[in-house]
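Reproducibility note. Readers wishing to regenerate the assembly model reported in the main text can use the exact inputs given here. Chain order matters: entities are listed in the order in which they were concatenated for prediction.
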Amino acid sequence: MKKVLFAASEAVPFVKTGGLADVVGSLPKCFPKEYFDVRVVIPKYSMIKEEYKAKMQYINHFYMDLNWRQQYVGVFELEYEGITFYFIDNEEHFTGTEAYRGVPEDLERFAFFGKAVLSALPTIDFRPDIIHCHDWQTGLIPVYLKERFQDSNFYRGIKTVMTIHNLKFQGVWDMKTIKNITGLPDYFFTPDKLEFKKDASYLKGGLVYADEITTVSKTYADEIKMPFYGEGLDGLMRARAGSLRGIVNGIDYEEYNPETDQYIEKTYSARNFRKEKVKNKTALQRELGLEVDPKVMMIGLVSRLTDQKGLDLIAYMMDELCQDNVQLVVLGTGEAQYENMFRHFAWKYGDKVAANIYYSEPMSHKVYASADAFLMPSLFEPCGLSQLMSLRYGTIPIVRETGGLKDTVEPYNEYDGTGTGFSFANYNAHEMMGTIRYAERIYYDKKREWNKIVDRGMAKDYSWFSSAHRYRDLYDGLVE
Ligand code: ADP
Ligand code: GLC
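Running the prediction on these inputs yields the following structure tokens for the assembly.
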């Protein structure tokens, strides 16, 4: 039996700001129980819903030395859908309405979390063979493990995996502060270790010290070896190429299932979507005050509103797009410039554009189910889950060919009748617009073709069962 502990800053259903939470919450369920015991540890945020907090069991507490003081570490446990989740408690660090407070404060919080995870292991009766770390918040775990936990038999031999969900966020701050916060000796602050352009980077530490590195698609694994996508770490990615693999994400096929979805107006399947899916569209049009018209092409967008998602291309094209016979339904929060941009166009084109500037799981399901197409013209995209959710709901993705979007959306080819979506190569607003217009033509003039694209998309399997076995191979390679 191999024991694996996922360490991360978020996991569904407890706390979610993006795809990281989907992955950390759903992947552990997809390993065969007779060979793998996969558990998860996240912070015990105060904003976790009361229904979960009430069920958590207190296991232990102790005081840990960090940042020149003794800090309280509480450990809680909860079994959810067959998976054991641990929660690291400390009110000072994890109270509040948001999971993140921004750097530099988060650097202190996640140095605490990283060291606390390691320190808590002997108290939870679970000695992992592998600690699987996700993103910069857990980057210090492989570092601490090498630095100060090696003297004890308990820790010696524990392997680490570092998964990059987004190389853009690294947990970088000035070296002196990070030395202070982490208590790591000078030895670690050189360019071949944590030093990053005269500052220090948590993620870099993780990438240097982890035994294996993964990222969430094959194409992104290639891209980050190049300067454009490498965020200053492309050299390290090339140096560690032998230990870096791209494993494409899956989604939870039970959570995202148009046949059983509780949040949507009318459930449907790959067999009856031609008749039934549209009922979701008209219901959503009514709910959002758009013109109610079953025939109009509805384009959905569910996203964090940040530069990564290609929103400047959309901003540039909004007026032109709104001259077409389309509706645009946006659900997202993020940078003020994009929130306001969508609010502006919703005001200007009230019956065509709906700007839902908030976070809502139920509304996201409604958009995936209701829209005809889903727009995701990302500047970069390590994997992307929204396009997979769209495919699952028979909503045709329109994407830029980058990262996981390139690996999961097969461009429509009208000559041989293949493909599951529409895509364009260059980060260029007119290229995006040309692709949207092409999609409009197929939607309005060749509806049978359109529906066949939907058929092919819905027939694809992007559940975890197609890629969880690649993590199994990785773990098997690390421990006998
Ligand atoms: P990223 O992790 O970069 O944000 P992904 O496509 O991997 O992008 O995952 C985004 C996840 O967050 C999806 O599950 C998507 O449905 C969800 N999501 C994003 N914005 C919202 C929102 N405003 N309301 C509900 N869900 C959202
Ligand atoms: C990150 C990436 C996204 C990916 C997600 C889960 O947030 O931006 O592309 O799907 O992590 O791996």
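We highlight two features of this model. Residues 2-250+465-478 form a domain with the Rossmann fold fold (CATH 3.40.50.2000). Residues 18-20, 22, 302-304, 331-333, 359-361, 364, 383-386 surround adenosine-5'-diphosphate (ligand 1) (CB under 6 Å).
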